[in-house]
Specification:
Layout: E1 6-10, H1 15-28, E2 31-38, H2 46-54, E3 60-64, H3 66-79, H4 95-110, E4 114-116, H5 125-136, E5 141-143, H6 145-148, H7 154-163, E6 179-182, E7 187-190, E8 220-227, E9 230-234, E10 237-238, H8 241-254, E11 259-265, E12 271-277, H9 279-295, H10 298-317, H11 323-335, E13 341-348, E14 351-358, H12 366-369, H13 380-401
Parallel strand pairs: 1-2, 1-4, 2-3, 4-5
Antiparallel strand pairs: 6-7, 7-12, 8-9, 8-13, 9-10, 11-12, 13-14
Helix pairs in contact: 3-8, 4-5, 8-9, 10-11
This protein binds arginine.
Residues 92-93, 123-125, 179-181, 188-190, 272, 274 line the site of arginine.
Length: 403
């Protein structure tokens, strides 16, 4: 085995990665560079710097990735209306390839031949990090301490922390915190009482949305502008991708939009129960479907919907940087050429409902669909032949069955 000289660690400054930092320094006796990504998790990142400094880290990277996250990862995924298992907006899944990309970039820059992450040996995130690193630079070695050390539970982790005088965080109630993953797209909460899917989730688990019951009694109507499939403005005001998603998170959170209590199938093989809050993403999904409804051709729209579950599963399973994901992305992106216009959405007690859509590129023809007399050349007799031919095989089939 060649000796590892330098490791780049994906570091949040939280308990797990603080312990991992110590463990890497002790186990490998080499320099560890820390990388902390600002993905809009809504947490101060300077404490992470201070903690890394205290642990003797010389090269500390804290990088604001919010715009890149939303424009190059979240928006391309939203163009597909991607949902895993029909419900999950993939908030954690889509962040991992971005973090991996920067881990690899920093590793190359500082001449490190290894990267490390704090994902456990039971989850999807380890798979996502490592498949992304494999696809971006096969020469880089990956260290996953959770699979290597003999700490096997959170209890043992806390003991290790105490032994090494590392501060142990607790939640507002003084209890060990849930396993939380937050970014501009969502907050995901797992563990503790949530591990029993029969257990009804107490309201204090939710972080960025109010209970729809407590949301304002008056609805709020907003207008979202789209260009080529991507949202570009809210209420007529142009915004950068990250600013736009931040704005919608605020609006959606206040109206209790985007809560999801889900039992999902992990790639690794087990079922898990989690709580997701995706306020802005939920509004955008409804609005995007709204603008697509008038700008996409039927067959194009249906083809997109057929490949969507496959595309979502690729992202969930960690294959963002894989040729088949890129092929599907090319198809999805091409479909968005004319997906421009404006959608009005009503936010009210947990729901985001499309109430109006307009586009200069609309395919919608009131003249064609109207119940009234219309000028457009539509011969009702054509429908008669259309139905007669489509019914031909059904008539043969029914006649045979009654023989
Ligand atoms: N189960 C989700 C996924 O696989 C979230 C994983 C990370 N969340 C967490 N709370 N640790 O995408």
């Amino acid at each position: 085995m060649t000796k590892i000289e330098k490791i780049v660690l994906s570091y949040s400054g939280g308990l797990d990665t603080s312990i991992i930092l110590k463990w890497l320094q002790e186990t490998y006796g080499c320099e560890v560079v820390t990388f902390t990504a600002d993905l809009g998790q809504g947490e101060e990142l300077e404490p992470a710097r201070a903690k890394a400094e205290m642990s003797g880290v010389k090269d500390i990277r804290i990088v604001d990735l919010r715009e890149e996250f939303v424009s190059d990862f979240v928006f391309p995924m939203l163009r597909a209306n991607a949902l895993y298992e029909g419900q999950y907006l993939l908030g954690s899944s889509i962040a991992r390839p971005l973090i991996a990309k920067h881990l690899v970039g920093i590793a190359r820059e500082v001449g490190a031949h290894a990267v490390a992450h704090g994902a456990t040996g039971k989850g999807n995130d380890q798979v996502r990090f490592e498949l992304a690193v494999n696809a971006l630079d096969p020469s880089i070695k990956i260290i996953a301490p959770w699979r290597q050390w003999n700490i096997r539970s959170r209890m043992q982790l806390l003991e290790y922390a105490e032994k090494h005088h590392l501060p142990v965080p607790s939640d507002k109630r003084g209890e060990a915190p849930f396993s939380i993953d937050a970014n501009l797209l969502h907050t995901s909460t797992e563990g503790k009482i949530l591990e029993n899917p029969a257990e009804v989730v107490p309201d204090h688990v939710y972080q960025r949305t109010v209970d729809p019951v407590d949301a304002p009694d008056t609805p709020e109507i907003i207008t979202i502008g789209f260009e080529r499939g991507d949202p570009v403005s809210v209420n007529g005001k142009s915004m950068t991708p990250a600013a736009l998603l931040t704005e919608l998170n605020g609006l959606g959170g206040r109206h209790g939009i985007g809560r999801l209590d889900l039992v999902e199938n992990r790639f690794i093989g087990m079922k898990s129960r989690g709580i997701y809050e995706t306020p802005g993403g939920t509004i955008l999904l409804a609005a995007h479907r709204g603008i697509e409804s008038i700008t996409l051709d039927r067959a194009a729209a249906h083809l997109k919907d057929e490949i969507m579950p496959r595309y979502a599963e690729l992202i969930y399973n960690g294959f963002w940087f894989a040729p088949e994901r890129e092929m599907l992305q090319a198809l999805i992106d091409q479909s968005q050429t004319f997906v421009s216009g404006e959608v009005m959405v009503r936010l009210y007690k947990g729901s985001a409902s499309v109430i109006s859509r307009t586009s200069p590129l609309s395919l919608y023809s009131a003249d064609l669909v109207t119940f009234e007399e219309s000028a457009i050349a539509y011969d009702h007799h054509d429908a008669e032949g259309f139905i007669r031919l489509n019914g031909l095989r059904l008539r043969s089939w029914a006649a045979r069955n009654s023989r």
